[in-house]
Design a protein that fits this description.
6-stranded antiparallel sheet, 364 residues, mainly beta
Amino acid sequence: MRLPTASAALVLLACAALAGCGWTDPEIRAPFTGELAKGNHPHSITTNVATFSPDGSLLATGRRNYDNDKHEIQLWDATTGAAVGPPITDHTDTVHDLAFSPDSTTLASASGDGTLRLWNVADRAPLGTPIAATGRGGVRAVSFSPNGQTLATAGEDGAVRLWNVDIRKQLGAPFLGHRDHVTDVAFSPDGHTLGTASRDGTVQLWHVDTRTPYGPPLATGPSQSFMAFSPDGRYLAAASLHLQVFDLANRNPVASWDSNRYDGAWGALVDGLYFSPDGGTVLFAVSELLNGPNIATPPVNATPNYVGGYSRHTLRALDFATGKERATPVLSGFEQFSAAAYSPDGRRIAWGTSVSAGVIRVVG
């Protein structure tokens, strides 16, 4: 059975020029469609993660600010685009992931400094002291359970841990089985299953209660970097060099995107993936390395790179009902898309790159 077709068509506003879409344009506030943050010079700010609060009122971004050499968390008003208070600068390494609690009152952050931190959204104050959430290296991902009582973290030590949110203590033994960094983690919508992606090339499903895997890995291949459950919990998308969507009832793939499909391409990498709130679309970021000598005319929206070819960075959309990619990318640019997120109502997409961050509208 298929998910319903996405009800919104993806249309980009306020990006008439290729160099626009937030690269060099001034901040756009009315309507809130454009750039959120830009440093004092190119590449001043690298946005690593973006997420909307479940109530849709706020957007949180994690970024590296090279102007002050800080790793920052910034909250934004999701309606006006105005910054909500000064940035949080407590982390000492990359902010890899952010997650709001289901009631939007708490923000969790996972960092390369090896800590999990909790923040009171109302005043951006820390909730307790930092939690050492990995045996070694950094914390790559964090996810709240649907009831908001438990957090899951994924570490560079190859382990996944559960945490009691109220007392900020680890719950039982870690989930063990991956042989390399665990790069993504998420609870299923019913909270009974945990999904993990790892650089060991696998995506694994786990029983939350017993911490045992549901059978063999769901996906295998080069360095599975990202995974996401569909909103109804019936499907799971996994990505690295390729994108696959699996029916969890029978574990069979039902949709895919192949990075080797482009003529003249040396390779492509999926940098992130995100289900739309209605489940009809899978948004995914792609970085392509194109073979210059085999291309007579520079590709559209591509820029020369250091190996004599071209690079192209896009946000693309896979229509889940048809299993086909939308003909036109959602957004194109000269820098890698390192962050993206749907708003809860599905009408906006936040994006981030090594240059800046912004929001585009999804209009129906």
